Amino acid sequence: MSSRLPKVAWIGLGIMGSPMSENLIKAGYDVTGHTLEQDKLDRLAAAGGTAAGSIAEAVRDADVVITMVPASPQVEAVAYGPDGILENARSGALLIDMSSITPQTSVDLAKAAAAKGIRVLDAPVSGGEAGAVEAVLSIMVGGEQADFDEAKPVFEALGRTIVLCGPHGSGQTVKAANQLIVAVNIQACAEAVVFLEKSGVDLKAALDVLNGGLAGSTVLTRKKDNFLNRDFKPGFRIDLHHKDMGIVTDAARNVGAALPVGAVVAQLVASLRTQGDGDLDHSALLRAVERLSGAQV
């Protein structure tokens, strides 16, 4: 058994993928990446990785292939077809999809990959851009125990809380629950911010004391400055949270779970998109509350 680190192919170098792939490079991994934007490929090369001109080129010699793309259609686009991962990765490779997609897409991918001798883990993450940069992501994994054990060192270079949640698709189900909790939490914080400001309270002082008690949360810690400064530069875009709220409401309906508050927040996220705020950070739910409260935003 060789003690060398596995060769990694990384597909998708966006807000999350770029810093995550760079953390693997820092941990000593040989990373070859492919994405659609040349500047992202240049960034990978500057960090010590290798830029590939196609998926086939990126995955050809890889032991581990990691995908980090926006949604189910993109996962299917990079995985299937003559130019995709399954046709071009070697038999025995481990495919780790870290995108947030529907649980069913993960189950289907694992089945299709097995026919090619490729093992699959679904391993979506929580922690946003800051968590990716700091390598403190929470990683929820679905798949086989042996594959999870093999991937553990890779995950440890990317995150802090790493848990195998069950069979294929389980990671995505837990991620969907995560996105439900985060959206409802941001919405509650946004409502509190508008209430506090309209009441004339010192917002910074109020958020500091709230965050020290039972109302405190990772969401409030991470998003406090966004609220205070109305800084909605995307760490996690409304467009993507809209996609995730669709995943969780659909999956919940399929299993017979009621999400009354989640359904309302899903509609509020959807309304932000229609108002042109889809490219903003999900903390921009504050803008929706401000509009409902009579502010011209």
TrEMBL record:
Residues 7-166 form the 6-phosphogluconate dehydrogenase NADP-binding domain. Keywords: NAD, Oxidoreductase. Gene3D superfamilies: N-(1-d-carboxylethyl)-l-norvaline Dehydrogenase, domain 2, NAD(P)-binding Rossmann-like Domain. It comes from the Bacteria. GO terms for biological process: glyoxylate metabolic process. Pfam families: NAD_binding_11, NAD_binding_2. GO terms for molecular function: 2-hydroxy-3-oxopropionate reductase activity; NAD binding; NADP binding. The active site is at K175. Residues 169-288 form the 3-hydroxyisobutyrate dehydrogenase-like NAD-binding domain. Belongs to the HIBADH-related family. This is 2-hydroxy-3-oxopropionate reductase. It comes from Streptomyces flaveus.
